[in-house]
Amino acid sequence: MKKLSIYILTGLALVAGSCKKFLEQQPDNRASLNTPEQVSQLLGTAYPQANYMAFYESASDNAFDKGPGFLVENFNVDAYLYNVVRDDQEDTPEFYWNACYAAIAVANQALEACEKAANPEAYTAQKGEALLARAYAHFMLVNTFCETYDPSTAATDPGIPYVTVPEKVVIKQYERKTVAYVYEMIEKDVLTGIPLINDNAYAVPRYHFSKNAAYAFASRLYLFLQKWDQAASYASMVFSTGNIANVLRPWNSTYLTYTYNELWATYAKATEPANLLLVQTASYWGRYYFNVRYAMTNNIRDDIFASNVTGGVWSFTNHIYTSGTNNYMIPKINEHFIRTSVNATIGNGFVVVPLFTTEEVLFNRAEANTYLNKTDAAIADLNVYASTRINNYNATTHVITAQRLRNFYQTNNLQLALISCILDFKRAEWVQEGNRWFDILRYRIPVTHTTFEGNVEILESDDKRRLFQIPQSATISGVEQNPR
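RE: above sequence
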């Protein structure tokens, strides 16, 4: 007994000493934020660590009902039927809403640290990244939960709260203000942040707002604002040097030789030149995107890939994989499963999402130039894109011309034909990644969803269900939900 007591006392002394040393340490090395490096570390989490692909894709015209017997997930079912998504976990609008505001909170914390530093000039790059990250999360929120920007209605359409300071109370009250206000704040942050970005501040620039990623974001922002000159100008900054084709994904050359596993490993890799900004998100879309009930079917596959203006065959079709009847996928979205511990059989799924790519930038410039009546420049960009996407591409046989566009889209309006082509190319490029939803919103494209039982849900151009519902939990902070 005496021996046992000695052991206990010795143990308590060791624990007490350890506790003292432990309590003398900062619980989180980010809490102090005393150096630019610490702020940079914090900013690694200033991007929404949630995935929009699942509910965007399910709501789009890239989804169709495969019928009973396929995997049923609420984020897929509810989005397809244009109901409020019931779940609040990974791959849902509510999870995305929370992740965006969590990212904004991080950006605001970083900005506060930059402003309060004794030598704020040393934090210039971090301030630039924080401003861009804050703007991006708000941009995604306003385009998921609000009316799409329209110059004639943006001043009255309800927006989302634009948060610019760290929260220091448990429940703070916010107001939605307007879509126009949100875009004004986004633009302000983008224009202030871009000159401050320094690519040399990052060990792995693809996971941060580099100059090119910032220019890509600006090109998207001004495309949505319908400011065509600025959209084209920022897009061109991404392609200021070198051959554009060399920074597009080599689908009809290098990718053509890849196995499914090699393509999965490459598509969202930081060393892939096409990827300008990447983020790891909590998501099971990499596991579910081809086998849920409402997804790509043979008719959707044919609608997207059967033909195109070049007369050639899409190289994407070389990698369309079928797992059972009507389970179609292109191996781009790869799940990384992380166990909760070394010996655990459970864990969490993650997907790396390319937030900005060179392909998007090229499309942005082509679209902007179309509206600027620079149709030759727009056609030239589409030809560069096609040269990396058409099997056995031949610059003579597959060349896109104004007349070929008019013939294919059966219109004498070249601008209309060009926009139609750009939308078709984008739909093919990002199938199963959700980005088609942006164009459905911007161009108010009607979508018809038919169920196996014969029920029809039509999303008209002015349908209120185009806005995903703001979470009920946000009403505690005074944020009103969308009418549906």
